[in-house]
């Protein structure tokens, strides 16, 4: 398995960095997080059409660029550094990922080109009010209705679910339970019987919505009652993608804290010369580098469809969650009084860290999942 970045990948990183530094400064992040939609359509069009970032890992036969998960991880890491406000994770990671894993060939050819071009914003609805990101947590039911299906129930914590054009919904057949009876369905965001409401969350840079489905007409995406494996794979890939996004934010927080420690003078000395601050920065570095190694390795495994994917995904998600939260917390401490003010960007990263920590499942959930897959827990 390749565990280093090629020259082409480094060039991709630099190109994405330049674009995001220009399009997602702190002032723009603060502006967009206060808007209902949470993103700038013009920037989204540039990101999609000029850079082709929405097509990175989608195969060429479906309108994509045909690169791998490694390139997707690079893009997400750079987006995490600047807290980009855009439906990228929802559409490209979750929506496209679900279609690639669960869709029939006909449905892939029908749906993926629009996502690759950025014209269609998609999302995936898995979790419900209980907040369980697994097949066993799915209660929303799909009932056959003529040549389609009727969906009844509630989905929550759906990223960009209030603005998405296409919603991929995970539902179960009546009288099924556990991993059995799971299927993927698609419906338009503005379909009849769908009520969408934006949720108030800690992290306003990632918009989450609640969907109430009452008799909503939907179309089957893949095979009926055979979606458990596809759901598990989609969530594993999403966990790896989120881990790469989080290490980008953690690295930025670390750099900002270290730079401040070098320039902030107290008692006639830079505070970075004090042992307590040195130890904080050193501990942050070790934790962030540890998480980056796990995230990079997991992305490489996803790119090569390695057998270790199922264990590397929860490992990367749990380590990145802990590292980002810890780094964001310590950054506020190192910045002292100014770090405790809302005007300082440290709070934006802290809230993103807390939101990402529980998104797709908490670190405790992923550690338990890892233990189960390693056979050391039941």
Describe, in plain words, how this protein is organized in 3D.
The chain has 378 residues and is of the alpha+beta class. The chain folds into three domains: 7-119, Acyl-CoA dehydrogenase/oxidase, N-terminal domain (Butyryl-Coa Dehydrogenase, subunit A, domain 1, Orthogonal Bundle); 123-226, Butyryl-CoA Dehydrogenase, subunit A, domain 2 (Beta Barrel); 229-374, Butyryl-CoA Dehydrogenase, subunit A, domain 3. 51% of the residues lie in helices and 15% in strands. It has eleven helices and nine strands. The protein has helices spanning 7-23, 26-33, 41-50, 69-82, 88-102, 105-117, 228-263, 275-303, 309-335, 346-358, 363-374; strands at 122-125, 141-145, 148-159, 166-172, 182-188, 194-198, 208-220, 265-266, 269-270. The strands form two sheets. Strands 1, 2, 3, 4, 5, 6 and 7 form a seven-stranded mixed β-sheet that branches. Strands 8-9 form a two-stranded antiparallel ribbon. The protein is globular, with a radius of gyration of 21 Å. The two termini are 30 Å apart. The mean pLDDT is 94.
């Amino acid at each position: 398995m390749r565990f280093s970045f090629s020259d082409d990948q480094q060039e991709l990183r630099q190109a994405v960095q330049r674009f995001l530094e220009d399009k997602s400064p702190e002032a723009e992040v603060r502006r967009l997080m206060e808007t209902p939609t949470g993103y700038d359509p013009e920037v989204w069009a540039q990101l999609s059409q000029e850079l082709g970032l929405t097509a990175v890992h989608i195969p060429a036969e479906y309108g994509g660029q045909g690169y791998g998960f490694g390139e997707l991880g690079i893009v997400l890491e750079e987006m995490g550094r600047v807290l980009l406000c855009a439906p990228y994770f929802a559409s490209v990671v979750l929506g496209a990922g679900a279609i690639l894993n669960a869709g029939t060939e006909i449905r892939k050819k029908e749906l993926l080109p629009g996502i690759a071009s950025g014209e269609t914003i998609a999302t995936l609805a898995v979790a419900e009010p209980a907040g369980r990101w697994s097949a066993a947590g799915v209660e929303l039911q799909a009932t056959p209705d003529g040549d389609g299906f009727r969906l009844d129930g509630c989905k929550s914590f759906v990223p960009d679910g209030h603005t998405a054009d296409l919603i991929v919904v995970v539902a179960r057949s009546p009288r099924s339970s556990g991993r059995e009876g799971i299927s993927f369905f698609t419906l338009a965001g503005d379909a009849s019987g769908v009520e969408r409401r934006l949720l108030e969350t800690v992290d306003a840079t990632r918009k989450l919505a609640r969907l109430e489905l009452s008799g909503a007409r939907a179309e089957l995406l893949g095979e009926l009652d055979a979606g458990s494996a596809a759901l598990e794979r989609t969530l594993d890939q999403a966990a790896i993608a989120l881990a790469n996004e989080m290490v980008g934010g953690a690295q930025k927080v670390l750099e900002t804290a270290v730079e401040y420690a070098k320039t902030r003078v107290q008692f006639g000395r830079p505070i970075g010369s004090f042992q307590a601050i040195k130890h904080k920065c050193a501990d942050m570095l070790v934790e962030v580098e540890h998480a980056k190694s796990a995230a990079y390795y997991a992305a490489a495994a996803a790119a090569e469809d390695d057998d270790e994917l199922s264990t590397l995904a929860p490992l990367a998600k749990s380590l990145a969650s802990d590292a980002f939260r810890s780094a964001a917390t310590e950054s506020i401490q190192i910045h002292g009084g100014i770090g405790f003010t809302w005007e300082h960007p440290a709070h934006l990263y802290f809230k993103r860290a807390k939101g990402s920590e529980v998104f797709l499942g908490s670190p405790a959930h992923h550690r338990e999942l890892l233990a189960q897959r390693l056979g050391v827990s039941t």
